[in-house]
Design brief:
- By secondary structure, the chain is α+β, with helices and mostly antiparallel strands.
- It has one domain.
- It is built from three helices and four strands.
- The strands form two sheets. A two-stranded antiparallel ribbon has the order 1-2.
- The longest helix has 10 residues.
- It is globular and about 35 Å long.
Length: about 80
């Protein structure tokens, strides 16, 4: 049986159905179509400090690494 391509999913934070492109890829999460469960907009609004980024990682089945926050700050400065 062939699987149909799903092009959208539900963000569990804002409860909106959005295109898959609005979610960060997550190679480790097969149950969620290899994407996070929070949309990019919710992630950007929520992750304002190291503690909230840790919570985001937990909620989205990502392993926390100490260099995440430093990397995120550097990327945000160039945007």
């Amino acid at each position: 049986m062939k699987r149909s391509q799903v092009s959208s999913k539900l963000c569990i934070r804002c409860n909106r159905v959005l295109p898959l492109g609005d979610f960060y890829p997550n190679k480790a999460w097969t149950a969620q179509r290899y994407h996070d469960v929070w949309c990019k907009e919710c992630a950007a609004q929520y992750c304002k400090d190291q503690d909230t980024l840790k919570q985001y990682c937990y909620e989205n089945n990502r392993q926390w690494k100490d260099n995440f926050w430093d990397s995120a700050v550097k990327k945000a400065q160039y945007v």
